[in-house]
UniProtKB/TrEMBL annotation:
Keywords: Acyltransferase, Transferase. Residues 1-156 form the N-acetyltransferase domain. It holds the Pfam family Acetyltransf_16. It comes from Aphis gossypii (Cotton aphid). This is N-acetyltransferase domain-containing protein.
Amino acid sequence: MFLSSLRNKMGWMVDEMGKVSAMAQELKSPITSAEMLINSDHVLYMMIEHNSSPHFVIVGILKMGWKKLCLYNKAVGSCKETMVYCLMDFYIHESRQHKGYGKYLIDYMLRDMHLCAKNLAIEKPTKNLLQFMWKHFQLSKLVNQGNYFIIYEEFFDDTFNERSCNNYIGNGSLVSACTCQSSILGQPEIQTHRKTTGEIAQENAMYSELYYNPGINYVENQIKEVNAFQNVQQDRNPAKRDQIFHQNYLIQNMLNDNSI
């Protein structure tokens, strides 16, 4: 009963964050959901903030996955089939944008996988994401692959193919557990044991605890109540208003649920 309730809550949180991410990117439908994760080998990183123990809210998601892509290297004019780690969905709550959260989440994933930003492929990147990659990683020279993915020219600078194979096994799963400890603005980071999405979400999955420090402070303060409707009347964009409402709805539901 407890595991079923836990899975339902996890699924709900993933679904809601996927919806908000889709609205922010002006997509017709979400590209991240619990069902999609169960039926794939993708990995979802979730960034959380604590209000007061045991409450927490999700402030960002990052969906990654391995893809076998035929990559075109325009420097030599040839194509090569390669397993590449792909960024598929990336979203930081509007109230936490431009405060270092996105960079921290990407950096955590890169350390987890022992990769550099230039080693990634990006699926259907938005203008904001391309600007983000330039601002934080100085990557701007795109090589369009003609298959909804882009890579950067720097991708071909080193022996990425050898490194990627070391982190990937034939069934698409990541088998090495990773326990990372890092810091942002001098604050300790959560230590987690990350399993494959299938292990966590399937009915026969073992219970995976989230260990955390209730006093954690990611940026400047613990999460504060956000007036999500501030200046809504001045915002004439209906899609934007829907996104703001959905963000506030998600936060309030997680804060009000005593069992989360």
